[in-house]
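Anyone opening a protein record will find just a pair of labelled lines. With that in mind, the following record should read easily:
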Amino acid sequence: MRIWSLNPMYLDPQGLVALWRETLLAQAVLRNETKGYKNHPQLDRFKALASPDKAVSQYLIAVYDEAVKRGYSFDKSKIHMFTKKVTLIVTSGQLHYEWSHLMHKLETRNPEIYKQWHREKSIIPHPMFTIIDGPVEAWEKV
């Protein structure tokens, strides 16, 4: 499971579809609708919130919006909608770690998209994240 702190616009088609599926799984986990993945470290930042299910739903909306921009037909009804806006923090170290990880994946899996993004200096986070200075997150498996 990888729930990127990066903006979904950077993902190749396989990455965006995987993010959608994995975040839907995360939503099910946080709503206690499944038995697996309950202790997955990628969920720690959501679990730390008062309403983790609302936060993951907001995360999914941005993934859905990116899919719509690309002409994909993701099923929006799978998102348990909430109206309250949630903001999460991501450290600069975490964002850069994820960027490096994604670029490594794209270099082999989708060289065309890798060429499009690999020189990017201003990395944009997922819309619900605010960047602060700091190292790679403790929950990240480096």
Summary: Helices lie at 13-30, 44-47, 52-69, 92-109, 111-117. The mean pLDDT is 93.
